[in-house]
């Protein structure tokens, strides 16, 4: 242990801890604009400067490890004056039209400028406004260079966390800017739309593209019937954006709020998450049969999940030769969209033309997914508008709803019922666990051999997880699987996805089924989730997801009564004709 004093408070921390981390241990907040718990140390913004007794120099607390006997002051006159000047300089380079900015009230620079009372200052006249671009061509993300303070959180996110490198540093010195390959718009480069950069940007330089006004118009349109679906990971995070602590399950209040906002049908993506499990689980078993019994070389194993659009875009760019390994099952969002304008429209006797399909997602890539040309199997754009968790919170605020005091409501029926297996889609490993709960039972007629259906080896935040389930005494139809060890792998975050795919490519692993989610922690850590999203917050959201699963009366997708009913009334059978028409696709880019 290393002992030091920070603002005269004794602190004892592990060797290698930075001054910033040590201060946080004793609840002293040192401001910073470039540091983020998910990212490596950068020391770019210098806002976190502190003073060390006996030294003339100020130290960047995010980059400086503690040493024995250190005496640190985080708020001396020298520190305050340096910090204020740095903030003034940053503000002077930033297009500070705060009242018109999407991040107004949620901008870390604005908050510091307010704390340090940055009013009129000399720098504003000294630094000429540069000509900077606003890229709003992507369906998911807006990049506004005039708001950028060059902290490089986005660059580190894209490079280290996601291993994509769509964002990079261009030029040097005063000309330095955050750019893309040949300064092309984001939609033309390898950006996966995951929005992890958006979630970490301290200012309004990277934001989601918002569709709030379009959704309000649809709600207020007399003729339109607006259907809303909510993703699994929204219900355990929305509360954070409305003043509640992380880890609160707000499913019932969210449903209540959506009704008050004026949505005509309040339905659940979890319903189609259950449907995905039936379709994807059957697809996996069919693939195994074709490979193991028929020796069909055209059929690819391992099969990978397809529900994370950031992952699909990643594999298209990085491992296109493995596109046939991706499950043909559409994501739950898109299955929902195509059913909303076909089966559901008919059921409620509304013309498909008059249905407006809105989804609330923890994800910015879902906006891109809904725009893909493959996602029009209803004859219309299957999902018209995708809102992030943050955008829904804004709608609730705009409508003057006191979220905390709302009563708990139930989803509408039909397409509002779901199992615990669907809820856990929102956490890394959840799709795998849900699939195994169903696939094992389909093959053997027995429940998966894990205590209380909890397949713990695929849970948790470990970067890459492996689990094997041995199939014993299968039903006659599946006798070819007797004794087969079903090998699975789960990865979250695209840098881990890359590691897994490289191992597959090099023949180092022989998995049957791989779950990949583009975002750290899975959807609960999505780019559209409330800010901040930190490792501790992801952990709390994850615990909430598994709590919600454990409280559900039905915990297996194949036991969802509405799923059984839709097969009986409409789809007829998994992988059948209707399913192929509406629920499956093939990515060819
Ligand atoms: Fe997800 Fe999914 S789990 S991809 O993370 O398969 O976004 O929550 O909605 O579609 O169900 C996201 C979450 C989400 C889909 C489902």
UniProtKB/TrEMBL annotation:
SMART domains: Fe_hyd_SSU, NADH-G_4Fe-4S_3
Annotated 2Fe-2S ferredoxin-type domain residues: 1-78
4Fe-4S ferredoxin-type domain residues: 139-169, 183-211
PROSITE patterns: 2FE2S_FER_2, 4FE4S_FER_1, 4FE4S_FER_2, 4FE4S_HC3
Superkingdom of origin organism: Bacteria
UniProt KW keywords: 4Fe-4S, Iron, Iron-sulfur, Metal-binding
Pfam family, one: Fe_hyd_SSU
Signal sequence annotation: none
Domain 4Fe-4S His(Cys)3-ligated-type: 78-117
Name of the molecule in the record: [FeFe] hydrogenase, group A
Origin species: Carboxylicivirga linearis
Organism placement in taxonomy: Bacteria, Pseudomonadati, Bacteroidota, Bacteroidia, Marinilabiliales
